[in-house]
Hints:
By secondary structure, the chain is mostly helical. The relative contact order is 0.20. Helix content is about 45%, strand content about 10%.
Amino acid sequence: YHMNVEENGFDDGLRRAAGRSPYIHLSESHRGVPGTGTVDWELIFRTLRDTGFDGDLVIESFVSVPPQLAAALCMWRPAAPNASAVLDQGLPYLRGLATRYGF
Length: 103
């Protein structure tokens, strides 16, 4: 999520962090179900492969957010409809990409 809004591009941020991160949080542009937003997942996985990333890939999605946290994160709608959507749709999507790119 942060790379989506704070970096010049996904590949730029990943290349600058290469070799310094033991894990990567995989989060969709809207923090919901991976594969349903604007993140260029092909670019991310290609860049991770090309930079020799060998750490953990960790899914990060917001399903149930308490009102106080939602206000602090400036979230005005649910990011994902439920955990099943993330696990049944987003997780297989990311696993498929990870497999295709050799992770």
